[in-house]
Amino acid sequence: METSDLKKAGLKVTLPRMKILEILENSETRHLTAEAIYRELLDSGEEIGLATVYRVLTQFEAAGLVCRLHLEGSQAVFELERGGHHDHIVCNQCGRVEEFFDETIETRQREIARQHGFSIKDHALVLYGDCSDSACPHRPV
Amino acid sequence: METSDLKKAGLKVTLPRMKILEILENSETRHLTAEAIYRELLDSGEEIGLATVYRVLTQFEAAGLVCRLHLEGSQAVFELERGGHHDHIVCNQCGRVEEFFDETIETRQREIARQHGFSIKDHALVLYGDCSDSACPHRPV
DNA sequence: CGGCTCGATGATCAAGATTCTCATTTCTAT
DNA sequence: ATAGAAATGAGAATCTTGATCATCGAGCCG
């Protein structure tokens, strides 16, 4: 259950936080902007301010509940942290986001960092392309 | 010479454009924010507006003369496009940026994209770490 | 269950980065 | 040199995100 995760992070269990968690859990794309979450809240009749959405997402990020990603657009997208690390492929046409994990790349990254005298702490890898060779069946984000 | 590149891109050869190219060429870090370029222009006595810097950099990007990167900070950084593609390692401590190219990673990226039904067009890979294990000799950006 | 205390919220404002507007200036071709 | 088109500068505008502050509600204690 998620309310325990909230408490564990020292956050009170409030309606805005639960609603936002719920939206993140039930989202089909699993990668939402703060604005998109805000709009879903409005659509479901919740009177929750945009500032609260940003504040809550930032707290969730600090608590390790969500990841903040900077894909192509100007807005950050947030995804629920479910288990492991992964990287992303974004379709230039429809904005669809897919996830992948590749041990070969992870290993090479560590080797490259070591060769340059860096101890790697994190990385960001995003592939951009066109999905399904022009018959892209998804709508833009 | 660079003025020919400007003409080739359909851009008039103007003083702001030449000065900005010059700064990009002579920069030691090779990765500059628009603000940093603007400050260098002011320091060298040029009366060039920040809006022009952004405008020119955007045009240079469209012409393939420079790359725009989103590293850690909130500001984009620009680097002169010299030959080949490469990715970046950024030091969390001092902000230093190093470049690398790894065929293994490039190949794996193409394979992964294909497996997901994507034709890859571009990618962004940034490694974040600490350089030289705590004895970081460089200043913050 | 009722109240207390502090964290959470909402509304608005603010900040930072980047782009836009528009009058003026500067290239470039003629 | 001159006209026409494009570029510039200054500032306003925009977009995203974080800050402020008064009000509200969650959680704890009796």
Main attributes of the structure:
homodimer; 141 residues; alpha+beta; Arc Repressor Mutant, subunit A; Dna Ligase, domain 1; 2 domains; 3-stranded mixed sheet; globular; DNA-binding
Calculate the mean pLDDT score of chain A and round it.
91
CATH class of the largest domain in chain A: Mainly Alpha
Greatest contact pair? A-B, 31 and 31 residues
Helical amount of chain A: 25-40%
User: Count of helices of chain A?
Assistant: 5
Record field, number of beta strands of chain A: 6
How does CATH name the architecture of the largest domain in chain A? Orthogonal Bundle
Description of the structure:
The structure is a homodimer of 141-residue chains. Chain A is of the alpha+beta class and 141 residues long. Chain A folds into 2 domains: 2-80, Winged helix-like DNA-binding domain superfamily/Winged helix DNA-binding domain (Arc Repressor Mutant, subunit A, Orthogonal Bundle); 87-134, Ferric-uptake regulator, C-terminal dimerisarion domain (Dna Ligase, domain 1), CATH 3.30.1490. Helix content of chain A is 39%, strand content 23%. Chain A has 5 helices and 6 strands, in the order H-H-E-H-H-E-E-E-E-H-E. Chain A has helices at 2-8, 15-26, 34-43, 50-62, 103-115, and strands at 32-33, 66-69, 77-80, 87-91, 97-100, 118-131. Chain A has a 3-stranded antiparallel β-sheet. In chain A, strands 5-4-6 form a 3-stranded mixed β-sheet. In chain A, strand 4 (87-91) and strand 5 (97-100) form a beta hairpin. In chain A, helix 3 packs across helix 4 (50-62). Chain A is globular. Chain A starts with a helix and ends in a 10-residue tail after the last strand. The model of chain A has no long low-confidence stretch (mean pLDDT 91). Chain A binds chain B through residues 70, 89, 91-92, 98, 100, 102, 104-105, 108-109, 112-113, 116-133, and chain B through 70, 89, 91-92, 98, 100, 102, 104-105, 108-109, 112-113, 116-133. Chain A binds a DNA duplex (30 and 30 nucleotides) through helix 2 and helix 4.
